[in-house]
Specification:
Elements lengths: L2 E7 L13 H18 L4 H6 L3 E11 L8 E11 L4 E9 L2 E13 L10 H6 L3
Antiparallel strand pairs: 1-3, 2-5, 3-4, 4-5
Length: about 130
Amino acid sequence: MLQHDTQFRVRYSETDAMGFLHHANYFKYFEVGRTELFRAQGGDYRAMEEGGLFLVVAKLDCRYRAPARYDDLLTLRTKVIEATDAKLEHEYELFREATLLCTGHSTLACVDRTGRLQRIPATLLAMCAD
């Protein structure tokens, strides 16, 4: 299974009034994790988009298990769990040291500039192979 770890330090501006990482920011971390995984495999989102293809989120979920707080150092593990001609699926695990804070899942589809579904290019699928 293809995976990549990305570290984050929770910034003050990412917390809510109780000092916890705001729930919406977990989804931002997931996006960074996907981007860094793609980059680590030699992918280039900018070039792909300039070529007229875009990966869009079709489904996204998160299960919160424990809160993160300001200045916590977190590790996000992003995994490709399925790659087909029609979709890419990722799984996420966010840790503070050994404590699992949340798990997530996303499904991405490939579209052109008009929003029409496209096959995921073979070169991209090859990057997702083990």
